[in-house]
Amino acid sequence: FNSLNHDMTLAEFKFIWYMEYSHRMWGRVVGLAYILPAAYFWRRGWLSRPLKGCVLALCGLVCFQGLLGWYMVKSGLEEKPDSYDIPRVSQYRLAAHLGSALLLYSASLWTGLSLLLPRHKLPETHQLLRLRQYAHGTTALIFLTALSGAFVAGLDAGLVYNSFPKMGERWIPDDLLAFSPVLRNIFENPTTVQFDHRILGIASVTAVTALYLFSRKIPLPRRARMAVTSLLAVACMQ
């Protein structure tokens, strides 16, 4: 308000305040939804030894996620006397907060499905092994693409170019490597950040499509077939 938003009304401030407040309260509800049932099941003796390790790791990750969120928001409230830009949180902390949330969600889903659905006993053929390795590689690529999206959001890089597939009139923009040293461009140059996100997004859709086509050559159980098909549908929609 002091440096930029002089004309902000109380109603406008309340809107962003309640958004932040709701996000924090929702995060605390998620934490209680993890910790309270976990403590109850633990006390009742319903958890096996390996599952206790998973539960402790998940509960620890929930707490870490909350602390990381606070650390991220703190960066947006620090005084920057030499800057009159829009106040924003650090793109590094934003990416870390999003990344830990994705890890928490994926680990929770994996643990839950492992308990609910019996594992298929499939013959370990060379094709199946390759499919599993390719699926893991695709997962890593999608995770990296999502993290690059956090840098786009943190730097407002989506506002730099609004044309596709070209960026403006060029395939490769002139200011792609404008910062020095060169490595800074990947994380701090809005043009490079948007360019990288586009490339990673296209690569992710291509990898998912290739994974689907490769899976068609292998006899898979119905559940695995549905998973691969759903992955392709969601990738196209995204």
UniProtKB/TrEMBL annotation:
Q: Mind telling me which Pfam families this protein's record contains?
A: COX15-CtaA (PF02628)
Q: Where in the cell is it found?
A: Membrane
Q: Which InterPro entries match?
A: COX15/CtaA_fam, HemeA_Synthase_type2
| Sequence intervals crossing the membrane | 25-42, 54-73, 93-117, 138-161, 197-215
Q: Which UniProt keywords apply?
A: Heme biosynthesis, Iron, Membrane, Metal-binding, Oxidoreductase, Transmembrane, Transmembrane helix
Primary localisation category? membrane
**What's in the GO CC field?**
mitochondrial inner membrane
Its annotated pathway reads: Porphyrin-containing compound metabolism; heme A biosynthesis; heme A from heme O: step 1/1
* Keyword Oxidoreductase recorded: yes
What this protein is called in its record is COX15 protein
Q: Which gene encodes it?
A: Cox15
